[in-house]
């Protein structure tokens, strides 16, 4: 059950596999595409249908990971089943999948897009990868008109500071369909997983970000924007959560 991964009460499905190696990742156990457990779309949907009474008018299912777009065939099958069952489907993603985005977005009600960084150099510093694939997915979202929530992790010395967040704000103003922007304070809850897996933790000496500091930058993100929808076009809304 999730209360923060999309609107309302939601079931959150974590799919295995991720090509990114974000320096602050707290789920290294999801990197391996051969990890986790096997399941068919039909069996999983039978479980989800049992929770429909909890979803109400706002809740539903959120597909997360790892990177759910790497299992595009399985994901598409599940999205279609959600649509046929009248279950709202949200995609929590960094946009680094295996294509077929246009078809996937036809059955996606909301995209929670994880912006790693707004420059190519910064993106590579955070993830170890090129931002090209994420840009392809983001372009597909823009063309589809699917609503978006934006998330960005504030890490001391890596993705923080007034100039950084002003640059992020300017980048987000170029996007359509953004309903909410959430700044997430960096935490160290995933460090024990690295030790258990025998993986060196990249940010060993970086302290957690204080939530009250992140809240101050959240106010910066709110400046100059207001929520409105006119003629099926969304104005950008930065919601302080």
TrEMBL record:
Protein keywords: 4Fe-4S, Cytoplasm, Iron, Iron-sulfur, Lyase, Metal-binding, Oxidoreductase, Pyruvate, S-adenosyl-L-methionine
UniProt subcellular location: Cytoplasm
Pfam family, one: Fer4_12
Cofactor(s) the protein needs: [4Fe-4S] cluster
The keyword Nucleotidyltransferase belongs to this UniProt entry's keyword annotation: no
Radical SAM core domain ranges (all copies): 4-224
Enzyme Commission (EC) number: 1.97.1.4
Main enzyme class: oxidoreductase
Cofactor note: Binds 1 [4Fe-4S] cluster. The cluster is coordinated with 3 cysteines and an exchangeable S-adenosyl-L-methionine.
Single GO molecular function: [formate-C-acetyltransferase]-activating enzyme activity
InterPro entries attached to this UniProt entry: Aldolase_TIM, Organic_radical-activating, PFL1_activating, Radical_activat_CS, rSAM, rSAM_sf
GO cellular component assignments: cytoplasm
Keyword Lyase: yes
Catalyzed reaction equations: glycyl-[formate C-acetyltransferase] + reduced [flavodoxin] + S-adenosyl-L-methionine = glycin-2-yl radical-[formate C-acetyltransferase] + semiquinone [flavodoxin] + 5'-deoxyadenosine + L-methionine + H(+)
Family stated for the protein in its record: Belongs to the organic radical-activating enzymes family.
Annotated function: Activation of pyruvate formate-lyase under anaerobic conditions by generation of an organic free radical, using S-adenosylmethionine and reduced flavodoxin as cosubstrates to produce 5'-deoxy-adenosine.
NCBIfam families with a match to the protein in the record: PFLA
Protein name: Pyruvate formate-lyase-activating enzyme
Lineage of source species: Bacteria, Bacillati, Bacillota, Clostridia, Lachnospirales
